[in-house]
Design a protein that fits this description.
- The chain has 1 helix and 8 strands.
- By secondary structure, the protein is mainly beta.
- It has one domain.
- The chain has an 8-stranded antiparallel beta barrel with strand order 1-2-3-4-5-6-7-8.
- Strand 4 and strand 5 form a beta hairpin.
- The protein is elongated and about 50 Å long.
- The two termini are 40 Å apart.
């Protein structure tokens, strides 16, 4: 009994405290922000994603999580039933509406597998993606991109327009 009380007190004392001192201004957050989401796209069909946003400068103290309100490096990994995509690039804040948002410009590599919807399986494509990130409840993401096959084949399907609609988890 005494050992469990000591363990509980130690656990509570080890919790971080975020209370500001009376004359201390809140500090800007500058750490990495992890992201997760799910979406619908062509050709990934249904996918889950994980990523990281790394602010280039200190983010604003009142910025919502995932929206640093400053330029940032943005990287994602998407895995879907129609394929997978890895992407990376820069994210820039947008000051529109009541809560802003961001636009992300990324280079990407995409591989098709399992389900072939308009594209053959086991093909690799490279291209670029532009995403609009919208803070909401839940957060939203709209994306459009253009991809070409890495090793062009004699096929009319060696390039395509990528479309994405997703929500944050």
């Amino acid at each position: 009994m005494a050992s469990s009380i000591c363990a509980a007190l130690f656990s509570v004392s080890a919790l971080p405290t975020n209370a500001a001192q009376p004359n201390e201004e809140p500090k800007a957050k500058s750490s990495l922000m992890w992201t997760a989401g799910m979406g619908f796209s062509y050709p990934l069909v249904v996918s889950v994603s994980g990523g990281v946003i790394a602010p280039i400068s200190e983010r604003k103290t009142d910025s919502p999580y995932g929206f640093p309100c400053v330029p940032a490096i943005h990287a994602n990994l998407d895995l879907g039933v129609g394929g997978g995509m890895i992407s990376g690039g820069l994210s820039f804040p947008l000051n529109v509406g009541y809560s802003g948002g961001a636009i992300s410009l990324k280079g990407a590599a995409l591989r098709t597998w399992l389900v072939d919807v308009g594209q053959e399986r086991n093909r690799t494509f490279t291209g670029g993606v532009m995403e609009f990130l919208i803070p909401s409840h839940p957060d939203g993401k709209l994306g459009i991109g253009y991809f070409r096959e890495s090793e062009p084949a004699d096929s009319s399907h060696d390039h395509f327009i990528f479309l994405y609609f997703g929500v944050g988890l």
